[in-house]
């Protein structure tokens, strides 16, 4: 798949945004005392990580 410049820039932006989100959610999960909250943040972080991997697959 050949991406044009705009598509590549958009993809990089999306990946970066998801990386920030993943880090924040991991931090929230680590800080959370409530087991349900911890699980919710952990699952959301894992989802962001999976999305990053999917987006990265478009790069190469």
Keywords:
single chain, about 60 residues, mainly alpha, 2 helices, about 85% helix
Question: What does this protein structure show overall?
Answer:
With 60 residues, this protein is an all-alpha fold. It has a domain at 14-53. It has 2 helices and no strands. The chain has helices spanning 5-31, 35-57. The model has no long low-confidence stretch (mean pLDDT 96).
What's the short version?
Helices cover 83% and strands 0% of the residues. It has helices spanning 5-31, 35-57.
**Mean pLDDT, nearest integer?**
96
Number of strands: 0
Q: Helix proportion of residues, in percent? A: over 70%
How far is the N terminus from the C terminus?
A: 8 Å
Strand content: under 5%
Low-pLDDT windows of residues: none
Number of helices: 2
Identify the overall geometry. Answer: elongated
Q: Note the main sheet.
A: none
Order of helices and strands: HH
Q: From the helix content, strand content and strand pairing, which structural class follows?
A: mainly alpha
Tell me the radius of gyration.
Answer: 14 Å
Protein name: Spore coat protein
């Amino acid at each position: 798949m050949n991406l044009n410049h705009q598509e590549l820039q958009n993809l990089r932006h999306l990946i970066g945004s998801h990386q920030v989100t993943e880090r924040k959610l991991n931090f929230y999960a680590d800080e959370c005392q409530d087991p349900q909250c911890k699980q919710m943040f952990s699952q959301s972080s894992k989802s962001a990580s999976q999305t990053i991997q999917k987006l990265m697959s478009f790069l190469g």
